[in-house]
Every structure is written in structure tokens, then in C-alpha cells.
Amino acid sequence: MFWRILKKDLKRKRTMNIILLLFVIICSMFAAASINNIIAVTGGIDHFFDISDVTDIALSMPAESDLADRIRELPGVSEVRTENYIMVTGSKNFSRDGVKLDNFINPAFFISDDNMGTKYFDEDNNVITDVEKGCFYANSPFLFNLDIKEGDVFDVNIDGKTLPLRYSGRFKGALLSHESFANPFLIIDSEDYNYLDQDENTDFNGLLSMTVYVNTEDVDAVRELIKDSESVSLSTREEMKDNYLFDILAAYLLMAISVILMFTGFVVLRFTIGFTISEEFREIGVMKAVGIDNRSIRGMYIVKYLAISVVGAAIGFICSLPLTDAMMKTVSENAVLDDNNSRFMGIFSSVLVVAVILLFCYFCTRRVKKLSPIDAVRSGQTGERFRRKSILHLGRSKLPSTEFMALNDVLSAPKRFSIITLIFTLCMLLMMLMSNFALTLRSEKILWVFTVPECDAIIADVEYFKELYEDPMTYRELLDDSEKMLEENGIPGKCSTAIGARCETAYKDKKANVGYWIIKGRDDYRQRMIEGSAPQKTDEIVMTGKAMDSIGAGIGDRVRTVICDKEYEFLITGRYSTFEYNGYCALLHPDFEFAPTRVNSTMGLQIDFDGDPDKETVERNIEKLKEIIDSDKVYTPSEMINSATGMSDTLSAIKKLMMILTVVVTSLIVILMERSFISKEKSEIALMKAVGVSNGSLILQHVLRFVITAVLACIVSTAVMMPLSDLLMNWVCSMIGDVSGMKCAFDPLEIFLICPAILIGVTVIGSALTALYMKTIKASDTASIE
Amino acid sequence: MSTVLQTKGLCKTYIVNKRQNNVLKNIDLEIKEGEMVAIMGPSGSGKSTLLYCVSGMDRVTAGEVIFNGKETAKLSDKALSQLRLDEMGFIFQQMYMMKNLSVLDNIILPAVKSKKNTESRKATEERGRALMRRLGIDDVGGNDINEVSGGQLQRACIARSMINSPKMIFADEPTGALNRSSSDEVMKELISLNNDGTTIMCVTHDPKVAAKCSRVLYIMDGGIVGEKEQGRFGGNDAELRSRERELNNWLMEQGW
């Protein structure tokens, strides 16, 4: 009999059941896909590290360093492997069919196939053991924005020497970042490598460096050994996983979206079950009166939701497979993943969705238990409860009657409409947050967290300032020559550069390798401080919190630093924020004569054009500058930051996904809710029609209810958006570097117009179309309503 | 007296499971201004359907319904709604009201909705209160609808039907859900309204209610099979008893 009742119910409430099914599908799809993604990214990285033979620690250092031999002698060290590189300044050293490449900014590194420190894999996940002579494998950053196919021949030009190399395919390296802003790596045959390596010291191109991979039980001993070494950095296995930080963040972000979707799904379930039960008090009463027990009555509902949730979860799981593949595309292209577990976890998460839905249904049907047969027959009204319904008074209100009715309905059912507002707010917030994050991570307003002065343009072509890497003291010539060049070409401006090098720093008996950063050419630059004040003298520095913690120092302490074998003492005058060197950083006074043995990084050459030019003039100047220096790598600060953070595009993609999801979720909620409201309020609608209220007025009243909740959601989300954006942005940035005090940028057009317009638009269209169903209710139905 | 409501060849057919069910067959009816007409008949005879068709709550299948000079079949849904709002009042057996509004707000809602009404919201509210005073329910204006008795609620429904001073009030079993004393009070108010000039058409099963009406129509199998002119009810008990006796005899003749 239950099956017959169930069949009838599924047929009778077709629209509501279909929408419910859609929600279960969406919930299950996103739950399975995001769990797959998280497991694949987090667990997958460990798997990839294991099969790649990644060691406990990796140290990068100049090739001439003898540290590898000294590390071998340390107690606890079980294995030491070295990997040498030839560094070339950038994409210009490569040409195809006579055309120089310009698709990547950073220096590229060559690895010899007989000197690979970890295992590298080809696109089919086979270990690369050797590379054919005259061929090369490249990782993703080399391929960024490059139309490439296997067999393409590239000429590598290093200091007049040319070597043709044929592309054999993409390779995957566990420790090589695959983000577009990372260094490109190329694996070549050992003979080709030796050919390029012959005149290693003639120029910056061909400069050698190496990574030493160490398996050890005593990481501290290695730290102790390298503390006096300049230009050496150490990363533990955990720290090496930072290469995948953005992938992990994106995976968690999608998980958050899934949780919100599931929450939305449950709210919808709650409403549907509530409405179904309140619509069927009479049937429930009759069933109770004839002696059917509570468990059986609840069981009937649960069987119905079991049927819907099993079908929904199965469809959702199937739909999650292409979604997972799409979400995992970047990671799977660059890592060797073990996806057996994640598929199983996907099925498990779908089963979990079914279990949670059933548990939730059981919880929601508890009202059946509370009702007596007579209560149920009386439509849930015992006559003993006198909860006030009317809030506003029509006689005293200045609102037109339809608007009054809509507002009064919302205020009379605050719980119901608050939940709808909450769901709308969550959808809005996700859209807004993604928009803010994407905008902030390409906004020139965050130049200060890269310790770069405000400017109009940045030359990022390493070829242009390669001398800086060899001798930082050439900065004066670089700045003078650049300013002269600008003057001669009619685009005068002030030039500056920011350079950094790792130096050993000590406070009392604690030592650490800290990145020292200096800005040359901009005396007016004042670093934004989180605490304390900027350095006023050459023996003063400001440090990040992480750097101070690493040596146990604080503001007011004097630290000792070794720069090019000479020891300096600096007074810490404040704390600042930066992304550089993972947040382990110090900023020197601009007048300090900073001459480290080797410069590790620079943020290029910044140009501040004279006369405060407008945006169009700056763009024209940049185009002119590109011609003058024969390079495409002249950027606006915003473009530079976008390429440095590299996540803005991902966030923009997630933002678009969120916009689509908001439209889908909002439409479904509005349709389901409105349809439920119509069912529940059939008698009132018929009555209103009987007394002469037109269809248009009734439809407007119902649409306005949703518009009120949508507008409320817009107000709430706008109010909490900025503090929440700042909070989350600082939390994420603190994981990447040592950054606090970031203020998110926002696009007023998107935040105050586009996002609200999407929400309100979808709400109006969805509710109006659904409300048309009211036309089927006739005034004469007043008498036939039970 | 002028004609308020007239039907010519009114037919109403429902199709149930592909089978045609002729509920009303060629009904010709004329109701004059100031009349109080009772529609009686056995269950399923088409009484309520007739009421809904003539009041524009339902569309007719064939024939004409002319209300106050307008042929309702030719009116759009919107115009029909406007007509119901401004010129008709409705009372149902069940005391349907908007749950989210107070009793007073329910009463004044049609007036606030009416475009014909140009008075201020305050004046409308005052008019609503005056109606409630007249019906003896002025003390429950601010109450929610679940806070008043069935009799009070039905009187509030009468007040709502009166708020736009309609040409005619349609009542479908207005006392069907009430006890005898509440029923008498409601009928007293309807008679009083009728005495003030409002035309009333009332569907009822109760001979005591029908006895108070000026004319009784007996409907059976979708057609009017009998009509009894009773004249205006004076209001005393002896007259009521006599009218009731006569009506019962007449109803017996009709096959009641």
C-alpha cells in the first residue's frame, strides 16, 4: 500500500519532487567532485612525492658550493643527491622558426638526463630515464601561452652558441611548480647539456646552480651547517608542497561551494518536507485514527525521500566524473595521481549524501509524532496556540496594498524568509568574494606586499637587467642608463629597482636564512608598516613577523647579518608584510650599500613617468618602451601582479562558475519555494480572487516577497563582504607569505550592480514564471478547499 | 425596480474522465434590485455552481450572465476581478480569511485594493471599524483570525463583503458552519443589509434561513424547477414560523 501512496505522491507533487531531485543531484555531484579533488590534491601530492623519490629536504645553492659533500658527512644523513642546472635569462634565449619566444618571464633551467635528482615523468606517467640527443622535455611554465606540438624544433641561444632542440613532450616534476609564473625547466640529453655548459662563466646566461636532495633524520643539523652560507635556501618536504598551495586552495574553495550547496539542498528539503506534511495533516490524521503507528507514517515519507535521494545521488555521482576531471585538469596534467581512492571516496560521498538526507528527513518528520489524530485532522491547529501572525497594520500603512501584503507575508513568516535570505546571501557572498579576490590579486594597490614602489610601468625582461644578478652594485648604471633612455625617447620618468638576496641573520644564539630586500632609486618610497616605523638610517631594518620569530628577535633588537662575508648589525625598527621569500624577509634602508655575493630575486625595473600621465598615455608609453627595448615584457603594475600571484585567473574562473551556480541554485530555490507557497496558500489565493483581487496583483505580491528577501540578501552580503574579504584574503596570504593588513579591492560595478542584478533578476523571473501557476486557481476553488 | 442580475440559457458543463457532466442546464433567472433570493435544492443539484457562475467566480459554458448591465462572459479576467471587487460581496460557508492579517485588516482589504475607493487609508479603517461596530464585533478588530469565534469570524466576513458597498452580496451557505444562535445573528445582519437596499443571493440548505428571504428558487438536476415568492420578511417570530411552515410544505411538493 505504501508503494501505491508513494507512487501517487511522486506523481501528484511532480514539480516539487523534480526540483528536490535536482538539488540532490547538484549536492551529490559537488560533494563527490570536491571530495575527489581534495583527496587527489592532498593525498595525490604525497603519492607523487613518494614515486618521484622526493627527499626529506632540498637545498638550492650555487653550483660551485661544496655543501653537498659537507652534508654527506653529517650524522643522520642517509642519502644525498645533486641536480645541476644551467640557467638562461628567459624566453628570448629560445626561438622557433627564427622567432624569439616571449611567453615566460622567469629564467629557464636546463637539467641533464644523467643528473636528475628526482624522478621525472612524461605525459603518460612513465619515468624519464634518458632523453634522445637533440631533444627536450619541458614543464608547464615553458608551455604557457605557447602553441606547441611534439617535433617542434627550438633554437637555444646562449652567448652566441646555438643548439637546436626538438620538443618531445611535457614532463611532470613533483618539486617544479606548474604555475605560469614559475621557472620553466627543460630536461635535455647529457651531451647537449655539456655542450651548453662549456663557457659557463662568460656571461649571466649559462650560470650554474644546483639542488641538493637530502634524506636525513636530523634536519636541524643541516640547518646548522648552512646557516653561514649565503644564497642557500632549504625546504622541507612539507614546505615543498607549497608548490601546490593554489591547487589545494582551489580544491577547498570548491569544497566550500559544495558545503553551501548541500546546506541549500537541506534547507530546500526541510521546506519540502514541512510543506508536504502540513498539506497532508488530514491524511496523517486519518492514518493515525485508523491505527497506523508513527514509525510507519514516517517510514512512508522516508521511503519517498530514499527513492529520490538514491536516484539523485547516483545521477550526481555520474555527473561528478566529468566535473572532477575538469577540476583536476591542471593538477593531473602536472602530477602523477593515484586516483583509485578518490573514485571510491566519490562513491562514498554520494552514499553519505543519501544517508545525511535520510537522517535529515527523519528529523524533519518528527512533527508527525507530535500530532494527535485530531490535531492532524484540524490541520495542525489545536486551538491552544495563539501565535501572533499579523505584524503590520494595513490601515496604518502607507504602502500600496500589494506591497503591504508582500512585506506583511515576509514579516509574518520570519523563519522561512530568513532562511531564504541566508541562502541568497551565501550565494551572493561567494560571487562577491571571488570577484574581490580576483580583482585584489591583480590590483596595483597590493604592490606594497611585493615591496615594490608605486609606478606606472615595470620592465620584467631579465635580459634587460641581468647585470644586477651578477653585481647588484650595477643598479646605479642601470637606473641612470634607463632614465637617460626614457628622456631621449621623449617619455621621461624616474626609475627604481627592488632586489633581494638571502643572507644569514643571527640574534643572540639563533640563526636563520632571511631574504634581504632593498629598493634603489626611489628615496620617497615609504614601506607600509604593520607595526613600528620604516628604517630611517642605513643600520636600521624592518622585518616580517616570520623572520623575527625565526631568530627570536623583536622590534628594538639588534640583529647580526653577514653580507658578502662582512658582518653588519641592524636595529629592527618595525614589522612589515611581504610575499617575498615565503614571508621570511627584511627590508633595508635605501641608502645602504647592498652588495651580496649573489642576487636571488628582483621585481624588475619600475618606471614612474614624469608629469602624472593618464592611463592612455601610460599605455602608449609602455608600447613605445616595448619597441625601444625590443621586448614584450613591459607591464603595467596590475599585469605584473596578476602574473606574480597567478591565481587571479583561477579565481575569475571560479567566480564565473559561482555566477552560473547562483543562477541555477537561486532559480531552483525560487521555483520550489514559490510552488510550495502556492500549494500551501491555495485557499487564500482563491479567496483573494473571489473578493476581486486580480491575477497580476497576486503574482506581483508573490514576486515581491522574493524581491524583498533578495534585496535583504544584497544588503547583508554587501555589509559583510568587505570585512569578510579582508579576513579571508589575509588568512590565505598569510599562508603564502607573511602578509597582514591587506585591504581587498572591489569593483563597485560588479558588487553593487551586476551581482545584485543577477540575484534580483533571477528571483523576479523565477518567481514570476512560477507564480503564473496561480492562474490555474479559480475563485470558485474557495469553496472546494478543504 | 431595476434588474441587477439576469441569466439567459446559462449552461455549465464539466468534463470528468472524458465524460460530460451538465451541472447547469439552460437557466433563465432574473433578480431585481433589493431582492433577497434563496437558492435551495438537494446536494449536487448545482446550487453553488449557479452562485459561482452568476457571480463571475466561474466561467459559464454557454448562455449569458448580465450583472448590472454588463455581460460577464465577455469580460476579461481582470475586468471580472474588478467587477467582483467593486460591485459584489461574498460570504462563504467556511470563514476564509488571510491568516497573516488581523480581523480589521481582512475587512478593509477589498476597500484598499479597490481603485474606486479614493478615501484615505485612515478613513477606510474608520469605515471598517464602523462596520464592525454595526455587526457587534468592534472589540476584535486587532485580533488575529485564530483568536475569534466562528460566529464573530462570519460576521467579519459579512463586514468584508460590505466594505465596498456592493450592488449584490453572494452568500454560499453563510450559516452552514454556525450554531443556531450565531446563525440567527448572521441572518439578522443579512436581512438588515437587505433592508438597506443591498441585493442578496444566498445558497442554503436551511429552510429557516430561506424563510427569511423574499424569494426562493428550487433547483434540481441543474435546472430551476420551482419558484416561491414570499415577500419581504418583517422580522417577528410569528411571521417567521408561518413562512417556515409554508416553505416546508412547498419544499415537500418540490421533492425535498
In brief:
With 786 residues, chain A is an alpha+beta fold. Chain A is 51% helix and 18% strand.
**Tally of DSSP β-strands of chain A:** 22
What is the rounded Rg of chain B? 18 Å
- Ranges of chain B with pLDDT <50 over ≥5 residues? none
- Widest sheet, order of strands of chain B: 6-7-8-3-9-10
What share of residues of chain A is helical?
A: 40-55%
Q: What is the end-to-end distance of chain B?
A: 31 Å
Shape of chain A: elongated
Class derived from helix and strand content of chain B: alpha/beta
Counting DSSP H or I runs of 4 or more residues, the number of helices of chain B is 8
User: Into which percent range does the helicity of residues of chain B fall?
Assistant: 25-40%
Mean pLDDT of chain A: 82
Morphology call of chain B: globular
Query: What is the makeup of the main sheet of chain A?
Result: 12 strands, mixed
Whole-number mean pLDDT of chain B: 88
Report, as a whole number of angstroms, the end-to-end distance of chain A. Answer: 24 Å
- Structural class category of chain A: alpha+beta
Radius of gyration of chain A: 33 Å
Beta content of chain A:
15-25%
Largest interface: A-B, 39 and 44 residues
Number of strands of chain B: 10
| Major sheet size, sense and barrel closure of chain B | 6 strands, mixed
